[in-house]
Design a protein that fits this description.
Layout (H helix, E strand, L loop, with lengths): L2 H12 L6 E7 L2 E8 L4 E5 L5 H13 L2 E6 L6 E3 L2 E3 L7 H11 L5 H22 L6 E8 L6 H4 L2 E5 L9 E4 L2 H7 L6 E4 L10 H8 L2 E8 L3 H14 L2
Parallel strand pairs: 3-4, 3-7, 7-11, 9-10
Antiparallel strand pairs: 1-2, 2-4, 5-6, 8-10, 9-11
Helix pairs in contact: 2-8, 3-4
This protein binds zinc ion (ZN).
Length: 241
């Protein structure tokens, strides 16, 4: 009876678990495509639409490794909410959202801005639930820099850091968890452990994750250096639990 065996094999290959599933996830006015490639504790996120190297690295990675990857719907650094500009990496606290709106729109009335702030406040926890795995997650954000941002920008507010010989200072891991830091500090790459101090909140995802006690790593790489970002992703994949 070979037929049932063949059928079983075909069914194994067709398991929904093995095929990437795409859904749309919203956080207030901000939308993401979530690509799920099987089960794992990895949750990847690409937040700045102009950081194309990070997008390419993540698209490659989620094809080859398990987890869920969130891609923002934007080709630009900013997103629009009710016609107003927002930095999507400054909307993870009330204070941060107010500040980013003020930066781009000092002329707009407080009431109009208040509506956007409240919409994001209302949906923040729901978005967090959609982002995280119920069994515990490692959230990995991918960013690129091109205007002088480097590990030196983070060192003064860090708990500790490790700079490696031969590594560009624009390329580094930034993490929120001490145990992850211990592992990453043994890597060939630069790494900084963020101080999860509320005083330093700027509405970024890394501060939000720090406040929530979620394991989070940002892989920050100079724009254009795709192979470096892929290598750092692979290192993280193979070495963090
Ligand atoms: Zn960025």
């Amino acid at each position: 009876m070979r037929f049932p065996l063949i059928l079983a094999l075909i069914l194994t290959f067709l398991r929904a678990d093995d095929m990437p599933i795409q859904t749309t996830v919203s956080y207030g006015p901000v939308q993401f495509t979530a690509v799920k490639n099987g089960e794992s504790n990895r949750r990847y996120i690409w937040l700045h639409g102009d950081e194309k190297t990070a997008e390419m690295a993540l698209k490659y990675h989620i094809k080859h490794y398990r987890g869920t990857a969130f891609f923002i719907h934007s080709d630009d650094r900013i997103v629009l909410a009710d016609g107003l500009k927002l930095d999507p990496n400054r909307i993870f606290s009330t204070k941060g959202t107010q500040k980013t709106l003020l930066k781009y729109h000092p002329e707009v009335s407080k009431n109009k801005k208040k509506e956007i702030v409240e919409a994001l406040d209302k949906e923040r926890e729901t978005f967090l639930e959609q982002l995280l795995s119920p069994k515990g997650s490692l959230v990995v954000a991918l960013h690129n820099n091109f205007r002088g941002y480097s590990i030196d920008s983070e060192i003064e507010n860090a708990v500790t850091y490790s700079v490696k010989p031969g590594q560009r200072r624009q390329d580094f891991f930034l993490c929120t968890d001490q145990a992850d830091y211990e592992i990453l500090s043994k890597s060939p790459y630069n790494v900084v452990l963020q101080s999860n101090d509320d005083e330093l909140d700027d509405g970024s995802l890394s501060r939000f994750m720090g406040r929530k006690g979620v394991r989070y790593v940002n892989i920050e790489v100079k724009l254009g250096w795709l192979s470096q970002q892929k290598k750092m992703l692979k290192y993280l994949e193979n070495n963090l639990p």
